[in-house]
């Protein structure tokens, strides 16, 4: 629409510049003043300025009708577009109608009546410009709606990806738990039984070695087979027990905390992590657990949030825990006991805490810790 408004402004200048009376009076500077108002309208984004400007422009339009040597129909078309950008269709029609009534009063008072063709042309200009402004407004609304729809679609897709990642992580943890349980059961049952049999066979072999050499030889062979069987069972147990199982225990504990929280709160929590490159020390795990519990508790009590996002990101030398909500936020962060304790524990582990918040922008806590445990090779 800016292009159309510039065209109307230039044509308005072309309407008056050829008139000799326009250049021989103060009309020229008056017109330049109006142009400056319009240019300010084009580039000022402040709504209050535009609303004040609209009132001034309406008054100037009325004065134009009275003072200018020619009827400013193109300027009225420009004013129609600008009014529609600020007000609803009904308010724009009302303002233009009031202007028409006041203009009619001025014309009748001064006995200055424009020609019928000028009136028809002016009405046409106003209608066309009003239609263009209406279409531009509808297009802007549609673009805004489309942008909001795309934003919501992107957010929904991101949530689906996070949920899928959580499901995969939970399935992996469940599988690892099951393998660990099976290996533990094999060790506690079959492993112990075979170990007992091996010990008993060795004892019987010694007792029968002198008086029953043939039986002793058979027992020796059976003892050898049983030891091989026990060795095979131990190898199977070792293969079943997940490598670096302990590294998934931390993730599982986080999921348990989130699950318990969601069971007692309407807030939805999204958690994701990248590949665990190294193990957390017990002190680091405890710090992260308490930090997550503290953040979830504060979000539930104070933030009025309906969504919390938690991310654990490992690098070669650091681990970063980021927690954020979409609550009301605050411009003043008060040093509460929970935050103070979190900072103190983080400092003891050689890390740092970053806290960000703003009014209506939610709350965000970022904890960075140095590498604390051994690396995972695969």
Automatic annotation (TrEMBL):
InterPro entries: HATPase_C_sf, HATPase_dom, Sensor_HK_TwoCompSys, Sig_transdc_His_kin_sub3_dim/P. The chain crosses the membrane at residues 21-42, 54-81, 93-110. Coiled coil: none annotated. It is an enzyme of class 2 (transferase). Its EC number is 2.7.13.3. Pfam families: HATPase_c, HisKA_3. Keywords: ATP-binding, Kinase, Membrane, Nucleotide-binding, Phosphoprotein, Transferase, Transmembrane, Transmembrane helix, Two-component regulatory system. SMART domains: HATPase_c (SM00387). It catalyses: ATP + protein L-histidine = ADP + protein N-phospho-L-histidine. Residues 283-373 form the Histidine kinase/HSP90-like ATPase domain. Gene3D superfamilies: 1.20.5.1930, Histidine kinase-like ATPase, C-terminal domain. One of its GO terms (molecular function) is protein dimerization activity. One of its GO terms (cellular component) is membrane. This is histidine kinase. It comes from Ruoffia halotolerans. The lineage of its organism: Bacteria, Bacillati, Bacillota, Bacilli, Lactobacillales.
């Amino acid at each position: 629409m800016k292009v159309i408004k510039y065209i109307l402004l230039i044509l308005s200048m072309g309407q008056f510049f050829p008139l000799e009376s326009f250049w021989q009076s103060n009309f020229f500077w008056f017109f330049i003043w109006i142009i400056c108002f319009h240019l300010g309208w084009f580039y000022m984004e402040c709504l209050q300025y535009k609303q004040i400007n609209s009132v001034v422009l309406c008054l100037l339009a009325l004065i134009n009708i009275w003072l200018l040597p020619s009827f400013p129909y193109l300027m009225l078309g420009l004013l129609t577009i600008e009014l529609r950008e600020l007000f609803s269709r009904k308010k724009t029609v009302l303002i233009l109608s009031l202007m028409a009534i006041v203009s009619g009063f001025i014309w009748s008072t001064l006995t200055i009546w424009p020609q019928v063709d000028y009136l028809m042309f002016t009405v046409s200009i106003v209608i066309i410009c009003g239609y263009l402004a209406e279409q531009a407004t509808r297009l802007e609304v549609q673009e805004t709606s489309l942008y909001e729809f795309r934003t919501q679609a992107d957010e929904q897709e991101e949530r689906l990806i996070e949920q899928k990642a959580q499901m995969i992580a939970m399935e992996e943890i469940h599988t690892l738990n099951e393998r660990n349980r099976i290996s533990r059961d094999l060790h506690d049952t079959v492993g112990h039984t075979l170990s007992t049999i091996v010990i008993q066979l060795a004892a019987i072999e010694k007792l029968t070695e002198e008086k029953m050499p043939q039986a002793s030889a058979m027992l020796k062979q059976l003892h050898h087979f049983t030891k091989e069987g026990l060795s095979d069972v131990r190898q199977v147990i070792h293969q079943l027990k997940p490598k670096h199982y302990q590294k998934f225990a931390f993730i599982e504990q986080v999921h348990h905390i989130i699950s318990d929280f969601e069971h007692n709160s309407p807030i939805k929590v999204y958690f994701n992590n990248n590949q665990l490159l190294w193990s957390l020390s017990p002190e680091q795990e405890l710090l992260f657990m308490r930090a997550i519990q503290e953040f979830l508790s504060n979000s539930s009590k104070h933030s009025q949030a309906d969504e919390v996002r938690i991310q654990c990101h490992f690098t070669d030398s650091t681990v970063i825990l980021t927690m954020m909500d979409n609550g009301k936020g605050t411009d003043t962060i008060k040093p509460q006991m929970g935050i103070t304790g979190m900072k103190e524990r983080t400092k003891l582990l050689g890390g740092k805490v970053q806290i960000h918040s703003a009014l209506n922008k939610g709350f965000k806590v970022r904890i960075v810790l140095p590498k604390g445990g051994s690396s995972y090779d695969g």
